[in-house]
């Protein structure tokens, strides 16, 4: 039965593993044309298109794969990598957002989103993914400093102060505690508490007395 879909799929898989990507592609496309579209077929077509770096075809197949299995994180991750390689940073971040909502216990992608949106000044996004990251690792000082910075930029002094204080209590300790104390000072300034801001700067200067940002804020106070 030359139209038997499972047999054709198995044959396509065998051809692909034997190095005959063109022959496999013909069979995969034939399955789609005959109404046997699937996530696995689209993933294979994206793999085949990726070998000669046909970015447009890879994108087409991965987008189709997303529609066929919206619960799989694979196409989102692959599209993110594709967009990064082709300089489409904003689109890469969007795909990574979808990825983290499917793989919520992975810390590294959340931190990548925080860093990416911080570069773009999208502090509401940094806050969202920073808060998600604290559910994965509440003592990650890199996450805490990034989240506290987002609160500062969004003019939320109370939450910024709490998060900087948390970073100072985390274990292992901060490599540069002066950054947290500087952030605390800025939070106090935001809340109109200049005396406490000066005290925080004094703490910051104990380890980084020549830090330009600390000296600048001290002069302003």
Structure description:
It is a single chain. The chain has 13 helices and no strands. The chain is mainly alpha-helical and 221 residues long. The model has no long low-confidence stretch (mean pLDDT 96). Helix 10 (157-169) runs antiparallel to helix 11. It has helices at residues 5-17, 21-33, 39-50, 55-68, 74-85, 89-102, 107-119, 123-136, 141-153, 157-169, 177-190, 194-205, 212-220.
Keywords, separated by commas or semicolons:
about 220 residues, mainly alpha, 13 helices, about 75% helix, rod-shaped
Helix-and-strand structural type:
mainly alpha
Net shape: rod-shaped
H/E order of the elements?
A: HHHHHHHHHHHHH
Please tell me the overall pLDDT: 96
Largest sheet: none
């Amino acid at each position: 039965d030359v139209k038997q879909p499972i047999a054709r799929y198995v044959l396509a898989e065998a051809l692909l593993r034997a190095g005959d990507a063109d022959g496999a592609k013909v069979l995969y496309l034939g399955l789609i044309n005959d109404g046997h579209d699937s996530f696995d077929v689209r993933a294979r077509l994206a793999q085949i298109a990726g070998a000669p770096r046909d970015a447009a075809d890879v994108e087409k197949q991965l987008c189709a794969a997303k529609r066929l299995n919206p619960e799989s994180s694979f196409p989102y991750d692959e599209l993110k990598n594709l967009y990064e390689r082709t300089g489409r940073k904003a689109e890469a971040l969007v795909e990574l957002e979808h990825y983290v909502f499917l793989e919520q216990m992975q810390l590294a992608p959340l931190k990548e989103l925080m860093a990416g949106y911080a570069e773009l000044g999208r502090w509401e996004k940094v806050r969202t993914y920073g808060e998600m990251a604290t559910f994965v690792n509440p003592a990650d000082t890199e996450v805490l400093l990034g989240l506290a910075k987002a609160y500062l930029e969004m003019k939320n002094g109370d939450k910024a102060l709490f998060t900087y204080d948390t970073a100072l209590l985390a274990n292992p300790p901060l490599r540069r505690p002066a950054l947290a104390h500087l952030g605390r000072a800025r939070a106090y300034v935001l809340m109109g508490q200049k005396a406490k801001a000066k005290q925080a700067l004094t703490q910051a200067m104990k380890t980084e007395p020549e830090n330009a940002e600390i000296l600048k804020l001290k002069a302003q106070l």
